Amino acid sequence: MYIPPAFRIDRAECLAFAAARGFGLVVAFDGVRPAGSPLPFHISYRDDGTPVASFHVARNNPLAALATRGGNWLLAVNGADAYVSPEWYVSPEQVPTWLYETVHLSGPVHVVSSEGKRPHLDGLTGDFERASTGDVAWTPERLTSGRREAMLNGIVAIEMNVDAVEGSAKLNQNKSDADFQAVAQQLRRQDDSMARQIAARMVALRPNLSYDVAGEDMNNG
Predict the structure, then answer these.
(1) pLDDT at 131 over 80
(2) Is pLDDT larger for residue 32 or for residue 143?
(3) Does residue 214 carry a pLDDT above 80?
């Protein structure tokens, strides 16, 4: 991924961003064309500190067969994004752009053993159950044994040993305070929720600026 120095985020922040998002596009190459699927995933760490991204696919998914071959795959994790008009800047001679946050994780994959599928599902569902309920409200153990075994047999669990971590947060860090402030204010006014998320991330980067929106200060709600 091409990352201008001003937008690069460090490894720890990348991994935290990916773990918090928990959903991304998994991409492999079959030798002729790329194959990809949007998938939820879980990040854990081996004893030596190596990050591991775990996810699963249906047996009929082309990624299932590709996983048996191993190879290096890509997991692209995107956050919010928003268009920025040149008209929003204070300075002249600006051009249209797009602000965004994204992290790319890549590394070799392998298929998880049958015995490892239950821990895999526990880790994955545990992440999202805690996020949605504040506690683990559901586990695969809630299913009848027959339904649980059918579910386990119907998926292929895959692990990626993450050996490359790249992240870009393009949030106008390369702009002057006046231009930065003006764009954040305009994004805050948009109906699009992702534009407002980008605005909030920009405010967090430069909280010293005054972000007046329709007579209200963004820092005061």
Answers:
(1) no
(2) 32
(3) no
CATH assignment of 5-174, among 2.40.160.20, 3.40.50.2300, 1.10.10.10, 2.30.110.10: 2.30.110.10
pTM, two decimal places:
0.89
* Greatest CA separation for the chain: 66
Which residues are bridge partners to 83 per DSSP?
98
SS (H, E, C) 62-116: HHHHHHCCCCEEEEEEEEEEEEECHHHCCCCCCCCEEEEEEEEEEEEEEECCHHH
Q: What pLDDT is stored for residue 48 in this prediction? A: 95
d(CA 201, CA 13): 14
Residue 32 has pLDDT above 60, yes or no: yes
Domain spans, the chain: 5-174
Amino acid letter for position 7: F
Strands of the chain, DSSP E: 23-29, 34-40, 42-45, 51-58, 72-84, 97-111, 155-161, 164-170, 212-213, 216-217
| Residues near 94 by beta carbon (within 8 Å), at least 6 away in sequence | 86, 179
